[in-house]
Amino acid sequence: MRAAVLVVLASAFVTGACDDAGTTAPASAASSVVPDASALLRGEYLVRSVAGCGECHTPRDASGALDQSRWLAGVANRFDLVPDDDTQGGISAPNLTPAGLSSWSDAQIQRAMLDGVSQDGSPLFPVMPYYAYHNMTAADAQAIIAYLRALPAIAGTTPVRQPLPVALTAPAPPIPQSAIPQTTLPDAGPEYASAERGRYLAGEIGFCLDCHTPWRLGETQPLDLTRVFGGGRPFSSHDWVVPTPAPPVVWSYDVTPDPTGIAGWTVNDVANVLAEGKTPGGTELCRPMPSGPVGGLGALTEQDAHDIGQYLTTIPPVPGGVVPTCPAGAVE
Length: 332
Known about the structure:
Elements: H1 2-15, H2 37-50, H3 53-57, E1 75-80, E2 90-93, H4 98-101, H5 106-115, H6 130-133, H7 138-150, H8 192-204, H9 207-211, E3 234-236, E4 249-251, H10 267-276, H11 302-312
Antiparallel strand pairs: 1-2, 3-4
Helix pairs in contact: 1-7, 2-7, 8-11, 10-11
């Protein structure tokens, strides 16, 4: 099955991206380098399981499940910063299939993804965590772009961004390396390399760090970098289609080894949470945490899940306070 997927992806890439009408996109917009199979697989893995692109750029059905028939085809007004006003605060997640990116060059895609600058030079609003993705390697960024180029083109456009409740004059600055916690394991220790790989997966690519760090609307740096991985970021149940009886807001967990977080958890506990979507005590995690059998993080390799566990269980603790549990029925 994986081989068949590669054949389809490679074929789509070689024949060129298509616009909404199904015509071949301008040659100038496509990459001139055909990626090898390993790059396409790496790009798919990052998009689906590590960077979590589908969580925002794919529509959901009434139960909150991602609509795989419109994978990465964009979502109109994906986020609503002013929920009591239909004319303000709506931010769409754009179409990332070749139908939406046919006029974009690879350099423009990478600049948007890592630096928060749109095709026309305007800043992207930082619900897109480009400030966290900025720290990924060039090879991983290029693999993601190759995968996006190789997807089937799915027609569809999304509305332009509505007027914002806060000023946006420049992109949010990248998260500095100094703000991403280091493992407390000794450099020469047998698990140090594993924790360093986990730091890259959880912190430098940024999906875990972004969701589990408090977010501040309107601030130049949208994350509170004094509380990295300390949890307490609010997520709207409406925006994330969390089924009832979910509360209006779901809060992210403290994933540091603090008593208010994951103190006492083992590396395997963390890996199992990612794979199964349940805490060591059996509590099911609430959306938008994309863990468990149907979540993107549930498809992490065993090694990557282990590395993330090795990292998170050995970083300095950050007191996170009490986070409401997810009500029965409002789970993944």
